[in-house]
Amino acid sequence: MKMNVLKGALATTIILGLVAFTNTVEKKQVDVKESTIQWEGEKLTGSHSGTINLKDGFFLMEDGKLIGGEFTADMTSIDVTDLEGDNRKDLMGHLKSDDFFGVETHKTAKFVITTVAKKGDVYGVSGDLTIKGNTNPIAFDLKMTENSATTNLSIDRTKYNVRYGSGSFFDNLGDKTIYDEFNLAINLKF
User: What is the mean pLDDT of residues 119-134?
Assistant: First the structure.
């Protein structure tokens, strides 16, 4: 009986000791109203650009260093900023259709950080990006300050079953070919 009590007391002491020395993980919420996601897609004859709203997001920080995070984009908010009138409306409708992002079925896209490595004044970040129900790994550099995080990255849309106008999948597109990669400029505010 004494031995069980001693074992219990020793186990409790070890657990309390470990908890006392465990680093605190902070969840740093992103201000979605102040944050921006700008996109640009290119084709043989030019390019188009626009924005996508962030629905929610956070970084996990430990002792002031990035260790994780998760972000959700509102794909229904896709906007075109380089066109006006009917041309803008038509392109927005096409981007929201099943030819591109199928936002009626896939209302959000999600990125979950899986690995972080400090590289000088930036972080090397890798994680899983889900677009249109398809998940693939991506990696990029992220510059982080006390109040913001920024990155520019390219995404191969064909990995997410967004193949409309892709010369990798369709022949004889000529000047209607749309490049497989689109670019994102992301500026997150805390």
Answer: 96
For residue 150, the SS3 value is strand
Q: Average the pLDDT over 98-122 and give the result.
A: 95
Quick check: pTM over 0.70? yes
**Phi/psi zone of residue 62: left (φ > 0), alpha (ψ -120 to 50 degrees), beta?**
beta
Domain with 32 in it: what CATH number? 2.40.128.110
Residue of 113, 63, 91 lying closest to 178 (CA atoms): 91
In a domain, 7, yes or no: no
C-alpha triplet 42, 101, 71: angle, nearest 5°? 95
Asked if residues 146 and 175 have their Cβ atoms less than 8 Å apart, the reply is no
Confidence at 75, pLDDT banded by 50, 70, 90? very high
Residues 6+ apart with CB under 8 A from 64: none
Let me know if residue 148 belongs to a domain: yes
**Residue 168: predicted pLDDT:** 67
Residue-range definition of the domain harbouring residue 71: 24-189
- What's the number of domains the chain is made of? 1
- Give pLDDT, residue 61: 96
Q: What is the DSSP string of 54-116?
A: EEEEEEEEETTEEEEEEEEEEEEEEEESS--HHHHHHHHHHHHSTTTT-TTT--EEEEEEEEE
Is 89 inside any structural domain? yes
Task: For residue 8, tell me if it sits in a domain.
Answer: no
Q: Which pair of structure tokens corresponds to residue 130?
A: 């889900």
